[in-house]
Specification:
Blueprint (H helix, E strand, L loop, with lengths): L3 H13 L7 H10 L4 H19 L11 H13 L77 E4 L4 E4 L4 E3 L5 H10 L18 E4 L1 H6 L22 H8 L3 E2 L7 E9 L2 E9 L18 H14 L7 H12 L3 E5 L6 E5 L21 H4 L14 E3 L7 H4 L3 E7 L2 H6 L4 E2 L3 E5 L9 E6 L23 E5 H9 L8 E5 L2 E2 L3 H17 L8 H14 L1 H20 L25 H26 L5 E3 L2 E6 L30 E8 H9 L4 H4 L12
Parallel strand pairs: 1-4, 4-7
Antiparallel strand pairs: 1-2, 2-3, 5-6, 6-7, 8-9, 10-18, 11-19, 11-20, 12-17, 13-16, 14-15, 14-16, 18-19
């Protein structure tokens, strides 16, 4: 029989263990409701213990119950709130309807994954029940993402709500949502849904739950099916006098400054460490941009939940556009603060987290800013600006040789997530810029340098590595450290006239790169493209990968858009016709408004591209026809990159040039056209790299 001390310890552990139990106030209410008090336990234990002793000593009393009731109570608490990693018990199993024997009856689960017993922790208030998911017309994938393992969020990071009160989650979970208004939906999400995601860094914050509303769900909750106006729909907001906005305010909830739009955040001020915030996304209001989430808005709710859920699991729970999510991921992986103990009082206070960008915005150096920035307008700066942008270059047609013109094909190669590859081990500035005159160049110090590189000779069949349009510089100009270092790598002397440099540095983007790289490769692997494939197999797999699983193909597109948009957000320009030059716009209030970091990524990506172009010319004698950001077009004797890429006698790709493969920085086939087609575009002043795939490519410049 358990001793009094052991039982008290068990109860206290079950009621006080963090962080997977309800908050202290909720635990106190549950303790009171169950009638579990130390006094009652003590009295019961003493009475029962004495009765047991009397019975064992031969008294005529019947044998008392040996604390079975208390043991069942403890078992119930253990099942209801299991410790992390503990095996679920039968009493903790989620309520799942039994399979019907009637013909045509729906089966529990989805067609997305093999059916397995679902186990979920019961919410402390109204327990969520499972409903049969709608049958999917898509074939079952080979690899299905699983819900979050954190017991605080048993149903994953998000759910997609339809008009019938069904909330579809990741892994085939379907929850009953009884909410009839937006405030009720927020309450249900926070207290009953079991939705959310754990923090990505020990000093960070848990991700707020996301509820995605279909058009039918939006109408049911009192929202218009569409937002109409002269502006782009993603820029529209509900008016402040709309009934739903009034409901939110009356229920003492708040909206962020961007109001109730396609991505709405509804919150109350945090109480202690507990956040009270729910993110809403309205599909019919164009919350999911077609370019970043191709085809997702038209999918069934269960498939939308799968796409967004996989993205949330591998990247981050969406909080807006993929660009916003890319920026939020940087902050989530490098939180600005951490707990620091005050040596005098012993109290723990928020302090600066080394390696982060801190909590306060930082003004850039004048050449790193944009022309409308206050540091430029207020100081009358006229010394020029950084022009570190992606390539937009076309070779002069007069430089084409007869041999090149007789080749039958123009083949486009595209570098996988070139900006992501450039972000790897990239040292950037973390502190404010300091101004220096005539400094000695140091390639290890990030910053902006005023240097004259007009004397650097480059083969005219290649673009200049120092300008986006590939033309030769005409005099002193501002360059990021990587661009100047490349001039030095080419064997030229560099003598900076002045510079804005940063003393505190670090690889700020490293965890961002690592997480997105893993997400990119895992998603490609789900589509049948792995690193183990030969070049021939890789080209064949890439040709059909988008058709293998449209949902995972959409996740891949979103990951790539997250990379581009996240880098672009580092220098977000003012928006709106009413903006006045010199006035601070909202993006400047973010510590992540860092145009110098964006310039460092793009500079390194452009230098990497030029290095490969130069090595290709050395190894094969081939020169590009055009370059657009991370896409390059070469004349080719055949329709495949295998017809002109350099390989050693052993069959292995030559290092230094373009190589095929799924890893960021390696290349894939972008498109094939006739050489005649390419020359015709070049003569008209168009860039073949923009159209080699068919249609009009989007310039990948991080905007």
């Amino acid at each position: 029989m358990a001793s009094e001390e052991e039982l008290f310890a068990s109860v206290d552990a079950l009621l006080n263990e963090e962080p997977h139990l309800p908050p202290p106030s909720e635990r106190a209410r549950l303790r009171e409701a169950a009638g579990i008090t130390q006094a009652r336990l003590a009295t019961a234990l003493k009475t029962t213990t004495q009765s047991v002793k009397n019975w064992e000593n031969g008294r005529s009393e019947p044998k008392p119950p040996r604390l079975d009731a208390y043991q069942r109570l403890l078992n119930g608490w253990a099942a209801k709130y299991p410790a992390p990693g503990a095996a679920p018990t039968a009493s903790a199993a989620a309520t799942v309807p039994a399979a019907s024997t009637e013909p045509g009856a729906p089966r529990v689960g989805t067609a997305d994954a093999p059916q397995a017993p679902a186990v979920a922790a019961t919410a402390p208030a109204r327990p969520a029940t499972h409903r049969p998911a709608a049958a999917s017309r898509r074939p079952a994938p080979k690899k299905a993402a699983q819900p979050a393992a954190d017991p605080r969020f048993p149903h994953g990071p998000l759910a997609v709500l339809d008009g019938d009160g069904r909330a579809y989650g990741l892994g085939g979970i379907v929850l009953d949502c009884p909410a009839a208004t937006i405030p009720e939906l927020v309450e249900w999400t926070l207290h009953e849904s079991g939705l959310g995601a754990p923090k990505l860094n020990r000093y960070g914050k848990d991700s707020d739950p996301l509820i995605v509303l279909t058009a039918a769900a939006a109408v049911k909750l009192g929202l218009p099916e569409r937002l109409e106006g002269h502006e782009q729909r993603r820029s529209l907001r509900l008016p402040e006098d709309h009934a739903v906005v009034k409901q939110v305010v009356k229920a003492k909830w708040r909206l962020t400054q961007r109001g109730f739009g396609p991505w709405a955040r509804i919150y109350r001020k945090a109480q202690g460490r507990e956040r009270q915030c729910v993110q809403l996304a309205i599909l019919s209001w164009d919350a999911l941009d077609e370019r970043s989430w191709p085809g997702v808005s038209e999918m069934e709710p269960a498939d939308v939940a799968r796409v967004l859920g996989v993205y949330a699991t591998r990247v981050i729970t969406p909080r807006g556009s993929t660009a916003v999510s890319g920026l939020e991921l940087m902050t989530a992986l490098r939180p600005p603060t951490r707990a620091v103990q005050d040596p005098q009082t012993g109290n723990w206070l928020p302090g600066h987290n080394p390696g982060s960008l801190g909590t306060e915005p930082m003004d850039p150096a004048p050449p790193e800013a944009t022309p409308e920035h206050p540091v430029v307008v207020g100081s009358g700066w006229s010394g020029g600006f950084l022009n570190e942008e992606a390539y937009q270059w076309v070779r002069d047609v007069s430089l084409l040789t007869d041999e090149e013109c007789t080749l039958p094909y123009a083949v486009g190669l595209d570098l996988n997530t070139a900006f992501l590859a450039a972000a790897a081990r990239l040292v950037v500035g973390l502190s404010a810029p300091d101004h220096f005159h005539a400094p000695a160049f140091n390639p290890k110090i990030p910053g902006s340098w005023l240097v004259d590189l007009s004397h650097v000779e480059v083969d005219p069949r290649l673009p200049s590595p120092f300008t986006p349009d590939g033309t030769r510089p005409t005099g002193p100009a501002w360059y990021q450290t990587h661009t100047v270092a490349y001039a030095q790598e080419l064997g030229h002397n560099v003598a900076p006239i002045e510079a804005y440099l940063r003393r505190e540095t670090g690889a700020y983007l490293d965890p961002w790169h690592d997480r997105l790289k893993e997400a990119y490769l895992d998603t490609l692997a789900d589509l049948g493209v792995t690193k183990e494939l030969t070049d021939v197999q890789f080209l064949a797999a890439m040709e059909r990968h988008k058709d293998a699983d449209p949902a995972m193909a959409a996740v891949l597109a979103a990951i790539k858009a997250t990379v581009k948009g996240g880098i672009g957000k580092l220098r977000e320009r003012p928006q709106g016709k009413k903006y006045k030059e010199g006035v601070r716009w909202p993006a400047l209030q973010r510590p992540t408004w860092r145009p110098d970091i964006r310039a460092a990524v793009i500079s390194k990506a452009r230098v990497n591209m030029h290095r490969k172009l130069r090595n290709m010319a050395t190894m094969t004698g081939l020169y590009p026809l055009a370059v657009l950001s991370d896409c390059v077009v070469y004349p080719s004797p055949g329709e495949s990159p295998l017809d002109f890429l350099p390989y050693a006698a052993s069959g292995k790709p030559q290092p230094g040039g373009f190589r095929l493969g799924p890893t960021p920085g390696l290349a894939k086939l972008e498109g094939v056209q006739s050489m005649l087609w390419a020359v015709d575009l070049m003569e008209q002043g168009y860039n073949p790299a923009r159209h080699i795939k068919g249609g009009d490519a989007v310039l990948d410049e991080g905007e």
